[in-house]
Write a structure and sequence with these properties.
By secondary structure, this protein is mostly helical. The chain is rod-shaped, with a radius of gyration of 13 Å. The model has no long low-confidence stretch (mean pLDDT 88).
């Protein structure tokens, strides 16, 4: 359970960063 508690925040941060990078790349037209 402790490992899951440590892992979930990292996964959420990773997903948020990935969505921001993808939106930034598509917005700037690099794709």
């Amino acid at each position: 359970a402790a490992a899951l508690i440590m892992f979930l925040p990292n996964l959420i941060i990773f997903i948020i960063l990935q969505s921001q990078v993808m939106s930034t790349m598509s917005h700037s037209g690099l794709k």
